[in-house]
Design goal:
It contains ten helices and 27 strands. It is α+β, with helices and mostly antiparallel strands. A hairpin with a 5-residue loop joins strand 12 and strand 13. The longest helix is centred in the last third of the chain and has 23 residues. It is elongated.
């Protein structure tokens, strides 16, 4: 966390106020002893102490698993039938284990038209839940294999021979996923135009989900000069191209989530793509300014390093788990992109990493692959994590009343937890308790939600007091009319001041 903790003291007064509102004293107790300091962010973007949402349960290497040592494992994937597939890059194999990390078997040789194929430093693996086919990024062989569980290859995806694909670019597949229609998406290291896309028959369709070019001063300057330059001058101008995304995952509804290394850009760090390749992230939330990974400290230091987002996983409840390679941290967000938990760190202890490479989730567990420790660490959700997850699930399903009590329980554990104030505020808002909702939105500094609650409170007050206001207005009108009549009849005379000389 480093410099991020420097702003913690500024928020003490608001935190204590929040604790009083929640009906309990501020508690910063820890669910388990961790090798890192659990924290979260408040609405100022400053880090605050937080409860542990997940705790590291164990780590397992290849020897413990029973398959021999891993060498630079690169990817893991949990299939629809609850098996874990591990791309063991250095050993040129795919290791298959159960979710207790007991070794089952491995895949090293594959059969294709009577020929035996072997892997060369595979970087990615994916299992299609609809067909059961396994897709393997056979990276240094420049291909993706589609095979059954026995290693019989059904199709090979290679570099497209197409004018849309620049032939001078290498074809070194990094990650792969498949949608419900059987379309195959492959991340290529050298491609910045999005994932390479094939249909179920292996026909190249083009590129999918390219990132936008970051609007830097250089980009804007080039755009201006291109308007007034000649064709020859434009040809010599440096091209501005987007940064390619690092990794992706697909949810049960067919939306593809992509993550991009935030050390290279601040644009499109996370995207949620519909089947047309359009990013729908911006349609989420009212007051949420989206930022993923660690928020840079207010006073930037040359020693502060930005997050390097390297993998993404969509959990069983739609939660989004993002892996930070730079700091070895896991950032978990709910489906509306509110930050839930931060866990992990850099180090040698249980729960920390040297080279966090891939993440997968199942039920209440997270599995993180470390390519330098050659091991998998298992995190299990804590009691506090269960309460937050319950409240978040109710909330995201639109069951605001049901989420109210769990959110209040969250504050009993952690008075710093901003998300709980938003949840309580919205539960109260949807129960027409606008004035109480305003207080929780005020504490969380949620201006958009506060303004919405204030409008509701104003309309509610006007409706409640409409008759009284109407009687007052009518009374004023009656008195004014009566006085005018009395003045005209001379019953009431206007007394003017004496303007005589002194």
């Amino acid at each position: 966390m480093g410099d991020n903790m420097s702003g913690l003291s500024k928020k003490l007064v608001s935190i204590m106020t929040a604790a009083v509102i929640s009906g309990s004293l501020l508690t910063v107790q820890t669910s388990a002893i961790e090798a890192y300091n659990p924290y979260s962010y408040d609405n100022w973007g400053d880090p605050v102490s937080s409860q542990v949402g997940y705790t590291a349960e164990k780590f397992v290497d290849g020897i413990t698993m029973g398959c021999g040592s891993f060498v630079e494992p690169a990817d893991l994937y949990i299939s629809y039938d609850n098996l874990m597939y591990i791309a063991d890059r250095g050993n040129n194999r795919i290791v298959i284990a159960d979710l207790d990390l007991n070794y089952i078997r491995e895949m090293k040789e594959f059969s294709y038209g009577g020929e035996t194929l072997t892997l060369n430093r595979p970087l990615g693996v994916f299992v299609d839940q609809y067909t059961g086919f396994i897709y393997i990024c056979d990276t240094d062989n420049s291909r993706v294999l589609k095979c059954d569980t026995e290693g019989n290859v059904d199709r090979i995806f290679e570099k497209p021979v197409n004018e849309l694909y620049e032939q001078e670019l290498t074809f070194n597949p990094n990650k792969v996923c498949v949608d419900k229609a059987g379309n195959v998406y492959i991340v290529i290291r050298s491609i910045t135009r999005g994932a390479v896309m094939y249909d179920k028959d292996g026909e190249f369709l083009g590129f999918f989900g390219a990132n936008a070019v970051e609007q830097t001063a250089e980009v804007l300057s080039n755009a201006f000069w291109n308007l007034i330059s000649t064709e020859d001058q434009r040809a010599r101008t440096r091209r501005n191209i987007p940064v390619g995304f690092t990794n992706f995952d697909i949810d049960d509804d067919g939306f593809i989530y992509t993550v991009t290394d935030s050390q290279e850009t601040s644009t499109d760090l996370l995207k949620k793509l519909n089947p047309r390749g359009n990013n729908i992230i911006d349609s989420l939330g009212v007051d949420n300014e989206f930022f993923f990974g660690d928020i840079p400290p207010t006073y930037w230091s040359i020693y502060a390093k930005r997050s390097s987002l390297t993998d993404i996983d969509i959990g069983p409840n739609g939660e989004i788990n993002i892996l930070d390679f730079q700091h070895g941290r896991i950032f978990q967000y709910d489906k509306e992109l509110w930050l839930l938990f931060i866990m992990g760190g850099s180090g040698e202890q249980l729960g920390t990493f040297r080279s966090a490479t891939a993440i997968e989730s199942y039920d209440d567990k997270l599995y993180v692959l470390d390519s330098r420790k050659n091991s998998i660490t298992v995190f299990e959700r804590t009691v506090f994590g269960d309460i937050v997850t319950e409240a978040s699930n109710y909330y995201n399903e639109g069951l605001y009343a049901e989420s109210l009590e769990p959110w209040r329980n969250v504050l009993k554990y952690d008075g710093n937890y901003v998300r709980a104030y938003i949840g309580i505020g919205n539960a109260l808002y949807n129960n027409f308790q606008y004035e109480e909702a305003m207080e929780y939105f005020r504490i969380s500094l949620s201006q958009g939600y506060y303004a919405r609650a204030f409008e509701g409170f104003r309309d509610q007050w006007l409706k409640k007091n409409f008759n009284n206001i109407l009687f007052v207005i009518i009374g004023i009108i009656v008195i004014w009319i009566t006085l005018r009549i009395l003045f005209k009849k001379g019953i009431i005379k206007i007394i003017r001041p004496n303007k005589g000389r002194f």
